Each structure stands twice: as structure tokens, then as C-alpha cells.
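Q: How would the C-alpha cells look for this protein?
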Amino acid sequence: MAQAFVSNRVVTSQGIRRAALLLEDGPADAACGVVRAVCEVGDLPAGADVVDFGERALLPGLVDSHVHINEPGRTEWEGFATATRAAAAGGYTTLVDMPLNCLPETTTVAALELKRAAAAGQCMVDWAAWGGCVADNQAHLLPLARAGVPGFKCFLIYPGCEGFTMIDREQLERALPALAESGLPLLVHAELAGPIVAASESLRDADWRKFSTYLASRPDEAELQAIRLMIRLSRQYGARIHIVHLATSQALADLNAARAEGLPITAEACPHHLHFAAEDIPDGATLFKCTPPIRGRANREALWQGLRTGSIDLIATDHSPCPPEMKRLDEGRFDLAWGGIASLSIALPVVWTDAARRGFSLEDVARWMSSTPAALAGLGDRIGSLEAGRDANFVVFDPEAEFVVTPEKLHYRHAISPYMGETLKGVVDATYLRGEPVFQAGKFIPGARGRELKLC
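A: Here is the predicted structure in C-alpha cell form.
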């Protein structure tokens, strides 16, 4: 029997309308769980099994291209079971895992295979793994590409863990020919150490409980210099470059000029940079620490304008959890606390709360949080949109409902959050993976249905 899901607000790339998602029907080894058509309700075949969600919107399953799952090796920070559980509660159907913080780091095919073994039988949603581009693994890049990673991640500054080494310009130049040959994107943590070292020297005797001290220690110039370096290297080598967690709006002019030149450069923003403002962060509130830092209100509004004009392509969470003690909440010192904000389960409401008040639509949100990150990871032909031939991954979302962020809403391993106590707009009622619910009415559906999505 054919299966169909109906809503008065189905969010597609052609607009939002009343429609039905009609799924393929057939034997279990056929294309079940794939969208056959997005059609008028009156065009559904007779006898179809129809679920009507009424005024609740249907969005394509979200794709988070920037997640730190940390397994194997640091499962006490986060692991596949808890990360994909939080993802399901937040409307995400695909996560792309960053190659650092796990042990071993995903910088070789052997390490990738260990990650695959760790993920087996644990995942509520689908996943993929970025490869690492570090100081000394240039010979491993093409083998990783052939093994199915969708691209690579590098740091231009010390990343906070010893095993994943930063990469300097000379090492980048040794890696870029292989990256260009692979055709895969290089995701760049774009801060250079020079401006940060200089700023920190002048702050040696400052009060590190003050957020203003931490903000001054990571100046905009560190991002600007790094992004300008990557623009020059993209021009020279023709490599695809993606700037992760863009925090400074001052770089938008450079990014716009690079794209006008035809360079293959994209950028992402994160919910925390779009939601919080430096002026509002209390001293000692180390739950707000991330790198690059949350900047001021005017900068935040300029980032939203970058999304409006297309200067910023997508929104990814940079879900970066850690055990609570690593946040040094008792000391409140920003120089000692781990930098990272976890938000997988609430990122959609955070973004929608802020986007709606600025006049954006659910169609914008679906583009930022589903179709564009899917394309970045080379998965746009399978996921990221409600279209015929794509996996039937979708979110049932009530955009008018509100809720208060409490620990039981978080679902990742350690229920700490700078969003705690906030009232957010938009509730995920259900998340479907290939036509089957994985989260529904506040409850998880037992079973590990998630699988790795490989490029080959």
C-alpha cells in the first residue's frame, strides 16, 4: 500500500503549499523510504495510507555539516548514541562528524574504519565523517577521499587538542593539490595565531572572568587574515574552500569579492553567533565560550544580513559538547574553560525564533539548514530537500508553538546550555528517517535506523 504524508505547509524549494509526500511502495529491498512524488492531495492513489499533519509544517530533514561526536575515544564527552538521539529530537536526519576530539583523529583510512566500527548499531539518524587535513597527513588525503569522506577539515590555529595538529601555509600548499584533485571541499577554522598572540600579551593581567577580556583576546583581525589567506590559496590552486563558524561580519566584503571573482568559497554561520550578543553575556558565564567568540549586537545583525544577501550560505551548529567540569563553571575563567556550545536538539527553534522576527520564512530555514549543507557534503542528490527520488527524511514542525529550554529538552550527553531558561519559538513534533519516525510526540522510537552516507 502506498504511504503518504500530508500538510497544509509542505516546505519545498518551489515554495510552501498544501501537498502530499507520496512514498515509493514495494518490497523491502526496493526503494522504500524514498519520495515518489510531491503532489496534490487529490492526486494520491486510491487506498493510500495517509497521515495528515494539518497546519504543522513539513520541512526536509535537517543536515548538520558541523558536529563533534567525539567517538571513539572521548565518548564521555559525546558519542554516536547520544548525539544522534539529540539530533532526532531536533529535526536533524543527517550529521557530518568533525575529525578531531575523537581518538584516533580521523586523519587516515584506518582511523575512519575505527569510527565506522564505533558507530555501528548506535545511530538514530544518518551520519558521514569529514576527514582531517593536518600538518603531516598529505599522503592520506586522496585515500580518505576514495574511502568515502565528503571533504576535509583543517585548523589554522591550535585546535585545543594535541592529536589534531594545526596546519600552516607551507603545509597547506603541500595538501592543496591533492584536495583540488579530489574535488572535495576543505573546511577551514579560519583564525590565525598572530593577532591572537598579540592581543593576549596585552591582556596578561586582565580579569579573565570578564567576557570582554575573552572577546578582546580573539580579535576580528585573526579571522580576517585567515580568510584572506584562504582566498589567495583558492585562487592559486582552484580548491573548494568552506569557512566554518564565521563570527566576524567584517569578512563579508572579502567573501563577496572572492565569489564575484568566481572562486569556489562558501561560509557558514552558527546559531550561537546569530542569537547571542557579547554585550549580554555575564561575567563568569563560561557556557558562552566558543571559538571564534560571540561578538557584539551590530556584528550579529550584520551576520543576519549576510544570510539575507547570500554572503553566508548555510547554518551549522558546531555542536561541541564537553563534560561540565571542563567549562570551569566554579571558577568562571574564560581562559581556562573549554570552548564549545552544544545545541543539536534546539538549534532549529533557536534559528526560527530569530529568523521569524526578522521576516525570514521556513523556506529560508530549510535552505540554510538542509539543502545547502547537504550540497556541501556532496549529498544533495539523496537528502536535503522534499523532492522525488530523495530519501523521505522530514520534520514535522509547529512554527507557532513555544517552549522553555530545560535540561530534559536537550537529550545530548551533558545537559548544560547557555540557552537554558529561554523561551523559543517552534517545536519539533516528529522526525522521520526514510519514511519511519525516529522521534515523535516527545518520545524516541526504539531502533538504530541510521547509517553512514558515503560518497563512494
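The mean pLDDT is 96.

DSSP finds twelve helices and 18 strands in the chain.

Upvote if useful.
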